[in-house]
């Protein structure tokens, strides 16, 4: 009995399998081709990438200058307080020291805020470069018959022949 049931299931499988053969394969190419692009290299070595990086560096230097000025002001105030310590009463000294500590806390907050802003600026710089690169990457992929392109930073290893960075860098001006 079990043998007839197994043969029946096998027969149904043979009948149904040709019907199901096309379901999972319609959208996926038979042999997908993969490419790799090193976006960091594109950012550092192409004219478009260098312009984007220079723009980011100008913003970073401006923000760093603001932070450095506040830090120097705080250091000067601390040195002045140390010089005045002998002339101040302990209560006044403690009050001024607490004010300096409060300013130091504010400076740390400013530093953290600037770090977040710089990270956002860097992300925007990369996004802007990607907007310029995407049409070029699509053309390269179509010309090479490539199905998927990954960033080199997201791969553990790849065959050097699938690296399309040089082709992209030639087109990024």
Topology record:
Layout: H1 2-20, E1 34-37, H2 39-45, H3 47-84, H4 90-144, E2 148-151, H5 165-171
Parallel strand pairs: 1-2
Features:
2 strands; Protein Binding, DinI Protein, Chain A; two-stranded parallel ribbon; 173 residues; rod-shaped; mainly alpha
Care to describe what's here?
The protein has 173 residues and is mainly alpha-helical. The chain has one domain (30-171): 2-Layer Sandwich (Protein Binding, DinI Protein, Chain A). It has helices at 2-20, 39-45, 47-84, 90-144, 165-171; strands at residues 34-37, 148-151. The chain has a two-stranded parallel sheet. Helix 2 (39-45) crosses helix 3 (47-84) and helix 3 packs antiparallel against helix 4. The chain starts with a helix and ends with a helix. The relative contact order is 0.17.
